[in-house]
Amino acid sequence: MTLSLLIAALIVNITMPLTSWFIFPQLILISAFLYESNRERINELKFKTFNFEAKDFFSFAAVLSAAIVTFIISHYLETGPVVAAGLVGVISTLVIPKFDVPAYCGAFVGMSCNTVFVTFEQLVLAGIIAGLIFVLSKNVFNGFGGKLGTIAFASCIAMRGLVDIVGSHGIRGVTCKPFIVK
User: Fold this and answer.
1) What are the residue ranges spanned by the domains of the chain?
2) Residue 178: helix, strand or coil by DSSP?
3) What CA dihedral angle connects 172, 175, 176 and 182, to 10 degrees?
4) What's the rounded Cα separation, in Å, for the pair 92 and 97?
5) 147-173 burial by CB neighbour count: b if 16+ within 10 A, else e?
6) pLDDT over 90 (residue 167)
7) Residue (of 155, 50, 49, 51) closest to 102 by Cα position
8) pLDDT, tens digit, for every residue of 95-135?
9) Rounded mean pLDDT, 150-158
10) Helix, strand counts (H, E) of the chain
11) What is the SS3 assignment for 22?
12) For the residues 37-59, what does the mean pLDDT come to?
């Protein structure tokens, strides 16, 4: 049902010009798609319970460490973010295959530019937030594309928001040294 609503919304958006009286059917189809996808997600969660396991700690650690390693490979070895994330993804699949998905989520966090993470503490904070979100959402949206990138994006936005609220000098006047990238 969800897929058919998405296809219908895409067809309407492609075939009809964006004029004021054609927006109504587009909004109806998109609203129906969002309602149906949310209904499927709620049905998926009815039979799942959440509990912390030892695996969750290792998933958290994989997200955090992969974020740091990807950032270091990308900026200090000057390979670029895509190559660094690919390298971390391949190595994590070969070395720790049970935790390759959380490591790849962390690699997405580490792909961020050094203007997003001005200090090392900000990178670690974003990795911690991504690890927490990853562990808390382990039973949600499994099999849907974009979950890992969305987690990485949300953690970077949350980190920037916290830094803007707290201030650039840190908590209680503790100053953080900026990254020095060649």
Assistant:
1) 2-45, 54-173
2) strand
3) 160
4) 6
5) bbebbbeebbebbbeebeeeeeeeeee
6) no
7) 155
8) 999 999 999 999 999 998 877 887 888 899 999 999 999 98
9) 89
10) 7, 0
11) coil
12) 74
